[in-house]
Amino acid sequence: MKKYVVITGASSGIGYEAAKRFAQRGKNIVAVARNEEKLAKLKAEITGMVNPPVEVIIKTYDLTQKENIYAVYNSVKDLDIEAWINNAGFGDYCSVGNQNLAKMEDMLSLNIEAVALFSALYVRDFADKEHTQLINVSSVGGYTIVPTAVTYRATKFFVASFTEGLSRELSAAGAKMKAKVFAPAATKTNFGNIANDITNYDYDKAFGKYHSCKQAVDFLMQLYDSDKPLGIVNRETFEFSLSDYRFPYVQKPQTLQKV
Ligand SMILES: NC(=O)c1ccc[n+]([C@@H]2O[C@H](COP(=O)([O-])OP(=O)(O)OC[C@H]3O[C@@H](n4cnc5c(N)ncnc54)[C@H](OP(=O)(O)O)[C@@H]3O)[C@@H](O)[C@H]2O)c1
User: Fold this and answer.
1) Which of 83, 107, 140, 142 is deepest in the core (most CB within 10 A)?
2) Any residues with Cβ below 6 Å from ligand 1, and which?
């Protein structure tokens, strides 16, 4: 049976590059995002680049809408999904009191709800299939609070702690699926424009250091190929490392409330 990798946010940045990289490895791709034109460009690029050919299935959906999360999942769940990469997300560089609440609502829906629901659905159906993995894209800001982006960072704390917990849950249950957190630092994508509500964000001016999408996806692939639950960039040195869990964890089940 053909194997597929589902990538949300595949129309731009890290997701676009990741889709190409998985395709080069011979994986069939399910590419999810809102911008159909950019997804079609991705499909054409992969078609022109990869031989033997792989299939690229485009899903044009707005993942801030809960019904679309279920619609996407139900439309792909019968495929042999080897990996699911929850990458779609955006930031907002703004103090909490000044946030545009409509943008904040969308950020909470996309960065948190879509990740949690897709993860739960994928785990429910695929946890006992050999060689499956779920990679949720957090950020180094999912492990450190950074001023001017408190809400965004908190969404990434959710992704990181949720995925570390899920990863431990899967391994405690002896599941075949691995769940992993990818935590990049500044990467030159469309992220800076969206987070600042501008169209000409200059990574050279804003950051002393940043990674290219290609570098970020090199790191993502290292995480994909490893048994570690976390791949994280050091925000001072910009070095990437594979890591064990970072969040504190209650080891004694007798102190838990679930009966
Ligand atoms: N760039 C960085 O510095 C950095 C650092 C750490 C973590 N990250 C994380 O990396 C991930 C990828 O971001 P990126 O840097 O590659 O940014 P990007 O170039 O802006 O890509 C974001 C992707 O998310 C998709 N997306 C946005 N809103 C969506 C929606 N409502 N429904 C469906 N898809 C949606 C976009 O596609 P459409 O617009 O076509 O929908 C696009 O494909 C994000 O989770 C981000 O938080 C980025």
Assistant:
1) 142
2) 9-15, 33-35, 38, 62-64, 87-91, 110, 137, 139, 184, 186-187, 189-191, 194
Among residues 120, 87, 73, 119, which one has the least CA distance to residue 21?
87
Report d(CA 141, CA 160) in Å as an integer: 10
pTM: 0.98
What pLDDT does residue 219 have? 98
- Residue-level pLDDT at 251: 82
Q: From residue 258, how far is each of 119, 121, 198, 253 by CA, in Å?
A: 22, 22, 47, 9
Domain holding 169: CATH number?
A: 3.40.50.720
- Domain with 17, as residue range(s), is 3-255
pLDDT beneath 70, residues of the chain: 253-256, 259
How many domains does the structure of the chain reveal? Answer: 1
Q: In what order do the strands lie in the sheet with 178-183?
A: 56-60, 28-33, 3-8, 80-86, 133-137, 178-183, 230-233, 240-243
Mutate to test the pocket of ligand 1, among 65, 191, 194, 234 (most ligand atoms within 8 A of CB): 191
Per-residue pLDDT of 127-171, as tens digits, reads 999 999 999 999 999 999 988 999 999 999 999 999 999 999 999
